[in-house]
Each structure stands twice: as structure tokens, then as C-alpha cells.
Protein 1
Amino acid sequence: DVKVTQSSRYLVKRTGEKVFLECVQDMDHENMFWYRQDPGLGLRLIYFSYDVKMKEKGDIPEGYSVSREKKERFSLILESASTNQTSMYLCASSSQIWGRGGLRTDTQYFGPGTRLTVL
Amino acid sequence: GNSVTQMEGPVTLSEEAFLTINCTYTATGYPSLFWYVQYPGEGLQLLLKATKADDKGSNKGFEATYRKETTSFHLEKGSVQVSDSAVYFCALSRSGGSNYKLTFGKGTLLTVNP
């Protein structure tokens, strides 16, 4: 079974703190993703990585950065946490497959999520 | 750009009722389509998927058929159980361009009462 783990299920931080969220996958997947999930807004992609040291901005990268030094690990960093970053953060990983029309992401496998509260 | 529209919730049903959650999409090319489920307090799990037109994905009694002519991927189950209470997300991935990403709908909360 594919396993994606996240370092914390619940986290409480103060405004201005630097926050690290860690994600590890054990399936040798090329792609890793960070999403945030908010009521009424669904899942929104923050950043993704398609290889070690490679990253691309998603739909809402402002206020976040990421690091991927090893294939199995993808970190999300909040440089200076703010209250509007209180949310559920979900990590995912996937392999790449060839489909009709070219390369595409295969099924994404999600971790259990980290509920971050910034006070 | 790509988009997924799924029916607004919440949906409340009695046990053994028939379920339909509508999902339509906008995408160029040949997207793959997915349904994910999120049980309370957990991350998302893949429920089923279809990779080309007229494919039917199925799992745990749930089914969805990839209809290119109507750009739809509606989720159905003939007889729901209390344990099916969860949030359901429709999603697509496409090749070319932003091929790394899934585009998600906003989710539909399903509550099944005994």
C-alpha cells in the first residue's frame, strides 16, 4: 500500500513564527504536492514538485515556500505564519504516466492532513 | 482553463436510498477523471477513476461513467449506508500544459441517516 505520512496531525503556532510541515512518501513517486483545504473553497494547490530540487507554484503560493532535497520528502514552510494561514494542509504524491495526449499525473495519494491553527 | 463543477451540498439521505452526485468538467484534450472521498478527520482517498471516454469506474458499490459528449462524470450508488457519510470530490487531470496537477471540485458533503 502507498503510504504518505505527515509530521503532525494538529499544530498550534503563533503569528510570526516560522512553521515547517513535513511530508514523506514511500512509493518512489516523482510528484509531490501541498494543498490547503478550507470550508467552501475545496482544495487549493499551494506548490508542487516533479523532481528533487524542482518546484512549481500552484494556485496560491503567496506566503509559502517549499523544499525537496530528497525524493521521498517534501516540506512546506510558512516563513512568518499569519492567522489567515489557519487551515487543513494536505500532502499528496503521484507517479507520472503516459496517457492519450501525453504525460499526466496518475492517481494522487494523500496523507492524513495537518490541521494548523495560527493564533 | 480546466474546471470541475459538482453539485452543492449538503446531501442528506436515508440508508438504502439511491445516490447521485453530479459532476461536470471543462478541459481541453483527454482528461482523466477521478472521484475522491474524505471521511471525517482523514485525508482524501481515491474512490474510483476513468481514463478515457465511456470508461466506467467502480468501487465499493459506487460507479461513474466518463461521458465526453456531456462532459460529465456523475457518481452513483444504488443503496447507501451510514458508513458512506463523507465528503466527495470530483477531479480531473489532463495531459500537456499543467499536466502535473489535479483540478478539484469544491466537494459535496453526504450524510446518510439510519
Protein 2
Amino acid sequence: QKEVEQDPGPLSVPEGAIVSLNCTYSNSAFQYFMWYRQYSRKGPELLMYTYSSGNKEDGRFTAQVDKSSKYISLFIRDSQPSDSATYLCAMSEGGSQGNLIFGKGTKLSVKP
Amino acid sequence: DAGVTQSPTHLIKTRGQQVTLRCSPKSGHDTVSWYQQALGQGPQFIFQYYEEEERQRGNFPDRFSGHQFPNYSSELNVNALLLGDSALYLCASSQRGMGSQYFGPGTRLTVT
């Protein structure tokens, strides 16, 4: 079993839809949880960062962490074609500067 | 303010050769991490440098080595290249004890 599991998709939604992206993990020592967005042939771009359990909102993006279920989610409201990218979840034990363990990434396509 | 920069953008090498990739961190950052991202996979942590020393290492063989310079820039060296080393190599920088990791655009290495 991999440490971090993420459905690679692809996921296709119409413009304006609410998108839900998820990851599960097995290491209960993970405390720091991040979502990165990666456009084709580019480096990952940090979207959201959460410490421990709870919710965090930033504009159209909401990140949720449920440590009891070892499950994290990213919601995108009012999705736009410019949101089309691969979304990577990442987590670590010892801080967001440390060794990040990534999921495989979910490829999202938002159709106009 | 320049973000994380990497050079070269693309590189083609032959099996058995050696390669050096370079990274300049974001202004104000003192810690550099290197990741390998195979096609269709999430990034995998190679190692991290801080104060010119390797501080953490992932599950990569000794063929992968690095260096950090006094100006915080870094190099990744790979010896005896294998076909399986073909990947996008990402550099990420951060400020020790603060904030998150910011990624560069990557160097795409092809081994033939």
C-alpha cells in the first residue's frame, strides 16, 4: 500500500461546477497537508496549506483534513477552464519544509 | 522578485553518462530540496540541503548526489545514468522553519 493514494482521473467537469478532489493516506504521523496545482510542463504551484485537522478557505478553494479518517479534500467552487491542470496532494510529518510525500495527482479538465 | 529558477530546461543524455542540474532558490530562501517526477507520477523526494549540508535523503541510490553553495544555490548530480532516470527534476526552496516549499519549472532529463 502506497503512503498516499490519489485517483489519477482524468476528471472532466463543465464550467461553473463544484470540483471535489481527494487523497487518502496511511501514515498517521502526517501533520502537514498541502495541495499543489501543476500545469502541463510546469513545476507544481502551492495552492493550499493546512496543519492538522480542519478546514481552510481561500477564495474559490477549500481544503479539508480529517485525520481520524486519514482523508483530505480540496473543493473548487465555480470552476473555470483556467483551473484545468493536475492537482497534487502532498503531506509531511515534520513541517512543510521537509520531505513531502505526494500523491500521483488528479488530472482535471474544466470544459467551457 | 524571481522565483525558483532551474537550468537547463531540457537535457538529453546517453546511458552511463553523468549529468549536473542547477537550481537558484527564491530570494530569502535558504533551503533547497530536489524531487524526481516520472511521467504520470507525483514528485519523489531525493534530498534536501541546508547550510551546505545534506539534511534529509529519500530512497535514492548514491548515484544521486548534490551540493549547496554559500549563496544557497544548489546542484544535483547523477552518475552512471540509467534509462529509468528519465524524468522531470524539480527543485523546491523554502526558508528554514517557516512557510512552504516553492517549486521551480523543472529540468526535463531524457536518457537514451
Protein 3
Amino acid sequence: AQKITQTQPGMFVQEKEAVTLDCTYDTSDQSYGLFWYKQPSSGEMIFLIYQGSYDEQNATEGRYSLNFQKARKSANLVISASQLGDSAMYFCAMREGLEDSSYKLIFGSGTRLLVRP
Amino acid sequence: DTGVSQNPRHKITKRGQNVTFRCDPISEHNRLYWYRQTLGQGPEFLTYFQNEAQLEKSRLLSDRFSAERPKGSFSTLEIQRTEQGDSAMYLCASSLVSGGWETQYFGPGTRLLVL
């Protein structure tokens, strides 16, 4: 069965420093996608970054990068130069399947990040 | 604002009452998803639409739940005879599938509290 595991319930980071949020996944499919979303206290899920299983290079989006290690089935999110506004819940999610499938996302339990001034 | 919108943002109801939530997706998106998120957990898939067709429903979607997407535009999620266990955040997401992978964009959610 598909599963996403986030082992860090909470993390602290000092402002302007980098932080890595862990995510491991389990799937038997060869084709899948991995996502990270940010959820502030307001509740909205904000898309951050995406990595496809066949992508050879790690995805980057501004201060966000995804450390994709396929053999280890890990997709860690790296946030560089943390800002106070980065304080939020972060969810790793996986989608399996090809174009005709449901594309539903399977989410982990999340990591709460607190950026200290 | 051209993002996904959801109404109401908050709903408090008494056990046994019916509630209906609305989701307006990004206008050109052809897929619409509903998820439920309970406290301290990640969202869980409930159902999704491809245009107006409801193509998959989770086992979480009991007979008391019904979702529609008339004309492939906005969607409604109705819960009949609400129970305290229905208290959760209900999230809607939309996406455009046009070959290859798509990204789901979420709305702000509707927080439901059943007393």
C-alpha cells in the first residue's frame, strides 16, 4: 500500500538558517510524483514543490529544494535562509499512476516548523 | 483572486443536522477533489470529479455524504445527519490535467464543528 512517513512532528530552526524536513515513501509503482505543501494556521494548503519519479535532477523552487533519493525512497524538503513566515505545518504527499488514474494524493502526518527570530 | 474558493469558511452545527459546502475551482481546471483533514493529521482523499463525472469515492465517504459537480464547474459536498465524528476541515482542490503530471491547488477549506 502507498504510504508517506514524516518522522519529525516538530522542528525548530533559527531565522536565516537552512532546515531539512524528512519524508520517506512506500510504493510499488515505477511512476509516481512527490509533492510538498505548506499549511499555515489559516488552513490553506500551499503548493511548494514537485518531483517526478523519472526526473533525474532534484527539483528547486526559489528557497525550496527537494533532495530526492530514489533508492532510499526519500524526498526531503530543504528550506534555505529560513524566514519567520516559514513557520507552518509542512506536508509531504505522493501521487501514483498514469494519466487516466485518479491522481489522488496520499499525505503524511506533517511536520510543524517553527522559525526562531 | 483566481484561486480555489470555498464557502463557508466555518460551520457550526448540531448533531443530526444537514450541512452543505461549496467549492469554486480555478476556472479552467477540469478536475476537482475533496479531502478531509482531522486535527493533527494530513488530508485524506474523499472523492474526485473529472468535469461533471464523479469517478472515484473513498471508503471514508459514507452514505451520509454526497458530492456533486453540475456542469463541471463548482462542486457541493453535503453531509446528512451529521455526527460529531464529522468534525474536521474539508478541503477542496482543483487541477488541470493536460498530459503528464498535474498539480492540485487547494482552497482555504471549510472547518466543520458538530456539537
